Amino acid sequence: MAAKVTPWEVKGKINYNKLIKDFGLKSMSSLKLPAVFEKEVLFRRGLVFAHRDFERILKAIKEKKPFVMMTGLMPSGKMHFGHKMVADQVIFYQKLGAKVYLNVADIEAYNSRSDNLKELHKVALEEYLTNYVALGLDLSKCDFYFQSKRSLDGAKSNSYYSLASMLARHVTYNEFKAIYGDVSPGKMAAALLQAADMLHPQLPEFEGKPLPVVVPVGADQDPHLRLARDLAKRCKLHKFIQLSSTNHKFAFGLKGGKMSSSDLTSYIALSEDPKEAARKIKKYAFSGGRATLEEHRKKGGNPDVDVAFQMLKFGLESDDSKLEDLRKKYLSGEMLSGEMKMYLVEKITEFLESHHKKRKVAKKQVKKFMKENVF
Amino acid sequence: MAAKVTPWEVKGKINYNKLIKDFGLKSMSSLKLPAVFEKEVLFRRGLVFAHRDFERILKAIKEKKPFVMMTGLMPSGKMHFGHKMVADQVIFYQKLGAKVYLNVADIEAYNSRSDNLKELHKVALEEYLTNYVALGLDLSKCDFYFQSKRSLDGAKSNSYYSLASMLARHVTYNEFKAIYGDVSPGKMAAALLQAADMLHPQLPEFEGKPLPVVVPVGADQDPHLRLARDLAKRCKLHKFIQLSSTNHKFAFGLKGGKMSSSDLTSYIALSEDPKEAARKIKKYAFSGGRATLEEHRKKGGNPDVDVAFQMLKFGLESDDSKLEDLRKKYLSGEMLSGEMKMYLVEKITEFLESHHKKRKVAKKQVKKFMKENVF
After folding, report:
1. Sign of the C-alpha dihedral, residues B305, B311, B312, B313?
2. Cα separation of B154 and A131, whole Å?
3. Would you say A285 and A316 are in contact if contact means Cβ atoms under 8 Å apart?
């Protein structure tokens, strides 16, 4: 099957080197990352594989200059291990000194999914933000907001929203169509807000001056970045420093393919009961093993497509040498697919049990945060 | 020439009765207007000729219940006698107790005309708002704002803007296209803000509850109203009271046709030097007279197409019996086109000289107002 990677569809076996070429990205491996990046598996293992203008962020980190890390979350469904990849990066950058802008794309959700704003807000807080905090997000160093409620004071609010409306001048219908497929007014309004989400930290009313902003995206979301970067260049109302971005690989869905919140059997949620997680892994996780035990022992398995191994690689086994050990044993046939799954179950149970404890604390923090801030 | 009336084009001899039928409006003459409406020539002379749901406004006036009068202004070019028709209605409703929402469509102007926001704001204040105040607008009973700066406090700002973005869910691309012709993202963003301009007074953050809102429009702008009314019905985020509107006839351009700010020889500006106004009238004003003096004396002129007579009718002669006298004399051939023009010159000179004195006072009021309010 030919690979296809667009904001609408990801299918086939993805050749990330080809994606770098097709999208005009730069390979992450061509950069000399500071030692601190070794701490984060996503960087250490090449899972964040490409970027645009990331040098600017590295310079800000090196010179201890301010920079912003911006991302948005879609408040629908469950937060799963695919979403966790973004959260891990957010928290990583926050620890490096980034001011975090964390946006709930509730208008986008309203325009394209549910018209129940209350439910969308509940999901954003109880599901997503709570998980972010449990994973380590420091709310005090974070500008968290809803697209529909960019409150703050009036001057700040209006500069965010009017930027969105005025960016519209600088894009054509055909450009929108190329990125968003069949364009409806709802999608268009959401896309303009999304561009404003990425660009508004640089306005005088927010960080006070143009500064580097990094947006971590899944490889399929690159067209949104391209549009926002084009708008940054074309809009002369403000002098924007060009957006930086990184692209990460797709978290494997349980059955292979991309992890998708619209398919319950494709993901494990961060709020999943460990027993249910174990059941899903055993039942659904696509295996890279051979048809028979005999054949597996002789020819070995394929860790590149084995979902259990990949989930370990994407973060659930943080020890590199242990991971390499698993890989070799699987490749040689010494380790069976069922054993790999059992290893994953052990690791994910450990993670989820610990995470659920942290969620209990996080819930209170989120409640307190929402009380203390006007939304 | 077949008449054509769309937001994009007005041409031909307009049959207002046909317009009422085509647009599904109701004739103003079918309403029993309270005596106070006799004070305003636009109502008295049937120049406000049609409406939608205007009964609701009459009821509010009668019962002394709160209602809103909303209009927007496009901050480009000069404010002329065509624009004055709207201003006269705004001021009339304000005196009747309406809360006035007066919006500067600067984002619409930015997206479709000039990208010089500063200049747009200067024109809005020095040209339009100053004229409004000179004509009698009471700034203290008026919510004046720019689309790009709906400041106030954060909660108010965001409810206005997020309404605009979320209304997008409830309209299709084809509906936009039918109303706005070839739709660009810039036009779409502006159209959504325009709908929010009309609907947001009813939000909890503004007037606090659903209430009647009247929007006076030129007959060609009715499609915008239809869209806003459709959105009011479809959007379940808020319970809107359906918008009311009135439609007024087109101010005659000097050379006949519609008065247009993009054709200097078609209009007289409110800031025009009286001598220049006289020159324009003498040189350009389309006459309803006959080819020769002899023929005119014998057959009489046509006041229905005589621009000088029409400008008097649209407000520059406020005395009905005097106007009727002019009409009869012109119709009979007793009065010549040149004499009609001279009469208009006299009246317009009187008006402009008085208006310019008022403008001087108004300028100071506008300056003070802008200092005292945050924009």
Report:
1. positive
2. 28
3. no
Complex-level ipTM: 0.87
The neighbouring-strand residues paired with B163 are: none
Which are the contacts of B288, defined by CB distance < 8 A and separation ≥ 6? B301, B302, B303, B304, B305, B306, B307, B309, B330, B337
* B230/A161 Cα distance (integer angstroms): 24
C-alpha span between A152 and A144 (Å, rounded): 11
The span from the CA of A34 to the CA of A23, in Å, is 26
pLDDT surpasses 90 at A226: yes
pLDDT of res. A156: 72
Specify whether the CB–CB gap between A66 and A99 falls below 8 A: yes
**Residue B200 Cα, gap to closest chain A Cα (Å):** 14
Of A115, A153, A237, the CB nearest to B169: A115
Per DSSP, the residues of A3-15 read: -EEETTEEES---
Alpha helices in A24-105 (DSSP H): 41-44, 55-62, 81-95
Of A321, A322, A353, nearest to A340 by C-alpha is A322
In order of their start, the domains of chain B are 4-249 (3.40.50.620), 264-358 (1.10.240.10)
Amino acid at A34: P
Q: What token pair was written down for A304?
A: 């590149």
Give the span between the Cα atoms of A312 and A317, in whole angstroms. Answer: 5
**Looking at chain A, which runs of residues are DSSP E strands?**
4-6, 9-11, 26-27, 48-52, 68-73, 99-104, 142-146, 213-218, 244-248
DSSP A22-39: HHT-EEGGGS---GGGGG
Model-level pTM? Answer: 0.91
Q: Which of A356, A325, A357 is nearest to A343 (CA)?
A: A325
Question: Residue B178: which pLDDT band, with cuts at 50, 70 and 90?
Answer: confident
- Looking at residue A8, its pLDDT comes to 59
Which residues from chain B sit within 8 angstroms of residue A172, using beta carbons? 184-185
Closest to A107 in 3D by CA, of A142, A145, A139, A163:
A145
Closest among A254, A231, A82 to A164, alpha carbons compared: A231
Residue numbers in B near A237 (CB within 8 A):
115, 117
Q: Who among A115, A157, A165 is closest to B107 (CB)?
A: A165
Per-position DSSP letters for B50-84, written without gaps between them: EEESTHHHHHHHHTT---EEEEEE--SS--BHHHH
CA-wise closest residue to A109 among B169, B116, B78, B332: B169
For residue A197, give the amino acid letter: D
Confidence at A180, pLDDT banded by 50, 70, 90: confident
Does B117 contact A237 at a Cβ distance shorter than 8 Å?
yes
List the Cα angle A300/A305/A311 in 5-degree steps: 110
Instruction: Give dist(CA B157, CA B174) in Å, integer.
Output: 29
Shortest CA gap B111–chain A (Å)? 5
Query: Cβ distance B165 to B157 under 8 Å?
Result: no
Tell me: the pLDDT tens digits for A105-161? 999 999 988 889 999 999 999 999 999 999 999 999 999 999 999 877 666 778 999
Beta-sheet strands, E only, within chain B: 4-6, 9-11, 26-27, 48-52, 68-73, 99-104, 142-146, 213-218, 244-248
Asked if the Cβ–Cβ distance from A148 to B155 is below 8 Å, we say: no
Q: What is the pLDDT of residues B184-215, one digit of tens each?
A: 999 999 999 999 999 999 999 999 999 999 99
pLDDT band with cut points at 50, 70 and 90 for residue A57: very high
| The pair of three-digit structure tokens given for residue B5, joined into one six-digit string | 């009336």
- The residues, any chain, with a CB within 8 Å of residue A242's CB and separated by 6 or more, are A53, A56, A229, A232, A233
Which residues in chain B are contacts of A206 at CB distance < 8 A? none
